[in-house]
Amino acid sequence: MDEDGKHVYGAGPLYTTRIDGEVPLFIPPGATGASALPPVTLCECFHATAEKYPSRDAVAWRVKDDAPSDAHPYSFYSGLATTAVGSHWDKMTWAQLEQECYIFANACLKMGVESKDACVVMGFNTPQWLIAFHGSVQAGGVIVGSYPTNGIETCEYLGQDCGAKLVLTESWAHGSKFETLLRDKSQKLAKIVVWGDMTAVPSDIASSKEVLSFVDFMAEGRVTVGATHGHSHIMQTVKAEEAKLKPTQCCCLIYTSGTTGPPKGVMLSHDNLTWDANAFIQFAKDEGVLADFGPEQVYLSYLPLSHIAALLLDFMFAAVTGGSIYFATPDALSGGLLPLLQQTRPTFFFGVPRVWEKVMDAMKAKGAAGSETQKKIAAAAKAVGLARNLGLAESGGRATGLSCADEVKYLLCKAVVVAKIKMSAVVFAKIKTTLGLLEAEYLPISPHIFPYLPISRAPRSGYVFMLGLDRCTAFGSGAAPLSKEVLRYFWSIDIHIIEGFGMSETTGYMTSSAFPSKTKLGTVGVAAAPGYVKLDLEKGKGFAPAGEEGHGEVCMRGRNVMMGYLNKEEKTAETFDEARFLRSGDLGKFYDAPDGSGTPMLAITGRIKELIITAGGENVPPVLVEDQVKLQCPMVSNAVLIGDKRKFLSCLLTLRVVMEPTEVGPQPTDKLDATCLLAMQAIGSSATTVAEAKADPKVAKAVQEGIDRANAAAASRAQKVQKFVVLDTELSVPGGELTATQKLKRDVVAKKYSAEIESMY
């Protein structure tokens, strides 16, 4: 028992930094709901679903139409397509997937994978990724994801830190990043498996059999002792390893994006993964977010699987519900989204804030190009739509807050929109054009996003089905705060984004909102279970905004909180308090849920490590100021606030530009994008490149006016921006200023642009 009298399941210390360690979990006596979910391993969860839905589709992927027919009977998922054009879907049922995972696990065992050996996967989302995810764990190993954008130095660090025994990559371009570890016999790495083209593999390594194709690797797993035993022998061998697994042992390593230093390996247990997925699904059902959260769900997998969000939303949700995972082709990131949407008709979309901002910008740009009549209809509809949804949220769904006249206006606006859509082929063309704008960024697109307005509850017209959006019932956002202005925009068009809060260290999900019962602008919802979130008010005293109370550091514990950071004893110890609450480093405040339940809802008000403390001692949360600057300056894509230990605040700005896809991430060009060009036209500027914009006095004047408007909304004089510099290029992953998950590396920016910063002081 701990100090709260909770039942202890498993053994070990409160945290561990060993990959072969074990951490107990706590279940309150008399617990109900999510708190009482029984502990299970990933393998138990996976097999239960495969047994329940053996003939349902588990996974689908695109295969090239001209792929050579392979005589090998088990290579039916080779020939992966890079685009939806000239390709077709191939599928596996849950029973087939389970069999392939057994074979992969057996191959791991034959290749020398032992208990808690790390298996690293690096590549775009494919069935091989999924098979490796389950199969390596079934063999007793620990699955580790590596971002496809990681360079050689990061890959070598990751491989050494986790002691990788096996590496799987989509190409030798990725595999070569681990080549030094393979050649270094002091390292554990024994094999590199490539599921793509093998022709680039050096001949000396290829001949040594240290690098294998995925088909050859799986062939090793199919070879059994005694031909008469067949697959049953493989199952018995693997099941013997599965029987040794415990829910409280390490299952997965998620490496942090490294915004403030080297990536840290977050150790997640079997129970972390299975509990977190089950807990969110139960919450979504209870709150009516997704009433039918079962095998009918379709997930279009496109987010990096080395990120906990994709692992949870795609792999774990499917493992729990029996839903179908459709793997996007890599060109979905650069224009190939539309055919995938048409063919998969996904039921749920999740996007990081940057994605939703891009959607909003594109829709605003299309709306601005409409006629004056269309603009008036849209403005009226959005105003009423926002007021109505604000009323629903503020009352917990009990009332809209609209007068009878406004309710009629709301319905009339929707009727006008529906009539226009049904009558006008031009609207369809506009939507196709809008989608074309969005595809380059691979944005989640709602069936409710139209140029003219709130029709989310209106009859779905034929072209919506043609676009493959008719089954999409919910949208989510996470990984970073979504600004109030972005949320208000989508509320105005009846798109209720589910916003939550979590970290890799909490298996992705710790709080979630639900419209309208558990929603309040500026909050990230309610805790996954009672007692899982608290505020350290004492820690918040030195960082809370002047004159405000109730702010504290967000601290979390529960069955979704990590085991510890791999090989980092000091960092792990300082992350947990004596009651095993994880210190997030985020500032938060509680508000009562609007449905009258008294359930506390969390608002994130800042990040302690990012807070700027001016020379005058004022605490300034940079994100709030940066968001306001971007809101008031539509041509600006990024704003980085400067001012720590300075007499006043300044800002580094970047303009919106066209991004070209590369293997290491989107590369910025000098060409202004469509949204920025529209903003240029609005101020009378003919600039089409960053260089031209920087040389145009009209642009400088427009940016200054935008900052003036942002300053007018500032909470105090100390939060006003006094000077700014427009940088020559956009921030990016290849440039080193952003992580693979688009998070800002403030220290890197400060060093890289130190000359520009000093020029303002």
From TrEMBL:
The keyword Ligase applies. One of its GO terms (cellular component) is endoplasmic reticulum. Pfam families: AMP-binding. Keywords: Fatty acid metabolism, Ligase, Lipid metabolism. GO terms for molecular function: long-chain fatty acid-CoA ligase activity. Transmembrane segments: none annotated. Residues 83-566 form the AMP-dependent synthetase/ligase domain. PANTHER family: AMP-DEPENDENT SYNTHETASE_LIGASE DOMAIN-CONTAINING PROTEIN (PTHR43272:SF32), LONG-CHAIN-FATTY-ACID--COA LIGASE (PTHR43272). This is AMP-dependent synthetase/ligase domain-containing protein.
